[in-house]
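Most newcomers find our protein records easier to grasp once they have seen one. The structure tokens are whole numbers drawn from a learned vocabulary of backbone shapes. The record below serves as our worked example for the rest of this section.
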Amino acid sequence: MEIIIYILIAVAFLILLSSLRVIYDFERGVVFTLGRYNAKRGTIGPGLRLVIPIIQRMVRVDMRLRVVDVPEQDTITRDNVTVRVNAVLYYRVTNAEYSVIQIEDFEYAISQLAQTTMRNVVGEVTLDELLGRRDQVSDKIRLIVDKASDPWGIKVESVELKHVELPKEMKRVMAKAAEAERIKRATIIRSQGESMASMKVAQAATLIGKQEGALQLRTLQSLGDLASDPSNTVNFILPFDVLKPYQGYKGGR
């Protein structure tokens, strides 16, 4: 009789041990009793919890922020350019029971939803908008995925486009366009500089023409600059204006 009692105690102890569950602080446990979910007692928080074998079943749900690497997708933009785009999506579970009851595998579902949404959104914009407005495209993807996954108890925190790969032919065309743009800017800057320089030269010529002897001083300054290098040979044509100060001079004593 004592042996039977010991056996029953041992069995009860083993059942008790198998009934204990440790829920971590970042987890929630969704408990089903005889296959039914009780809204009042069905979700259990962190700590040491008791789950009755056979009668109850618990599903653990990780509530931490998760990352989904959206694979590269071949997409055609609105202006008919084929690009390969990939992204990264950050989300977290906000309602544990919805993520278990409303959908079979929310991780797979959110990944597939992000892929199809990214293709659709990229197809609605041009290549220039995709390259120049990545933040707006990413935010549009986030809003669509967040709205679609809300019934699953999921909150999408952010979506970031990681890489946009262009065809080789398009890369060459864009490189030529960028080079032409740089040449155009350089030509405009050079022409603006020449225009400003010509205005300054015209102002200087007007000022020199108004001042008596200014042309002679400028000529002598130019000669001094040329004479600084002994290897230079200068053929100087004397302007008639240089002789104006000496007109009427008959010599000294």
Summary: Strands lie at 20-23, 27-33, 36-37, 43-44, 47-50, 56-62, 66-76, 82-93, 154-165.
